[in-house]
Amino acid sequence: MTESQNLHRVAVITGASSGIGAATARTLHAEGYLVALLARRRDRIESIAAELGEGAIAIQADVTDRAAVVTAAQQVQAELGGADVLVNNAGIMLLGPFSSEQRTDYRNMIEVNLLGAITTTEVFLEQIKEGGGDIVNISSVAGRTARATNGVYAATKWGMNGWSESLRQELLPDVRVTVIEPGVVDTELPTHITHETTRQAVQQGYDVATVRPEEVAEIIAFALNRPRHLVLNEILLRPADQLG
Ligand code: NDP
């Protein structure tokens, strides 16, 4: 799709204050989308929206707070005319050995990474359906390969993958659901790890990360711009006794 074909398509990006979300907001805006940047750090999203200029708005919203997400959806409807694309990107990766000491981390990861995406999707769904839109869920390689010390983070991403596949089948042909599974990307993700020795070890890996968030943003834009072969998908998903 060209820049002009994206004009007036509205993309809502959660976790747009840094890393992959900020890069996605910049990339989609450059491709002609109107963008709504959602995150908790108001100063960060306001500064990115100001840098982008016309067609970009910042909305402070914590994805674990449904009332805030509902208010955000109302603002997107009123100011941009409703969402066509939702990028569920907000996430935290609080790695460490499994132990009761990390139990708050576990709850937080499930509430942000999994429930946050589910809540944001159910709140925005009617807007997205209206325009025949897209949902892009940012999962991870940890959604397919679990390792020691990443169990609950991996569980949130495995959960996201299962939920996304069900949603993908259910929402066709109105809405296309896409899952993106990055590996190590150079962002501030590891800086929030509360288990000190794990944070230091993981940070070492991130210090030599070669994938930039802009590259993931390009993949997201590429996926959104692909033609939608929904008729074929619909036929393939019909129960076998209805085929042929
Ligand atoms: P960042 O830490 O840079 O970005 C995370 C974003 O999530 C921030 O904008 C943060 O904004 C937001 N966020 C966190 N908690 C909440 C909340 N409760 N409500 C709303 N927003 C929230 O890391 P990345 O860019 O790397 O992470 C983006 C996504 O990519 C995550 O889902 C992550 O799991 C996934 N991913 C990242 C990989 C990597 O190696 N970097 C690899 C695979 C997947 P704020 O604090 O302002 O609210």
Automatic annotation (TrEMBL):
<dbReference type="Pfam" id="PF00106">
    <property type="entry name" value="adh_short"/>
</dbReference>
<keyword id="KW-0560">Oxidoreductase</keyword>
<protein>
    <submittedName>
        <fullName>NADP-dependent 3-hydroxy acid dehydrogenase YdfG</fullName>
    </submittedName>
</protein>
<dbReference type="InterPro" id="IPR002347">
    <property type="entry name" value="SDR_fam"/>
</dbReference>
<dbReference type="InterPro" id="IPR057326">
    <property type="entry name" value="KR_dom"/>
</dbReference>
<dbReference type="GO" id="GO:0016616">
    <property type="term" value="F:oxidoreductase activity, acting on the CH-OH group of donors, NAD or NADP as acceptor"/>
</dbReference>
<feature type="domain" description="Ketoreductase">
    <location>
        <begin position="9"/>
        <end position="187"/>
    </location>
</feature>
<dbReference type="InterPro" id="IPR020904">
    <property type="entry name" value="Sc_DH/Rdtase_CS"/>
</dbReference>
<comment type="similarity">
    <text>Belongs to the short-chain dehydrogenases/reductases (SDR) family.</text>
</comment>
<dbReference type="InterPro" id="IPR036291">
    <property type="entry name" value="NAD(P)-bd_dom_sf"/>
</dbReference>
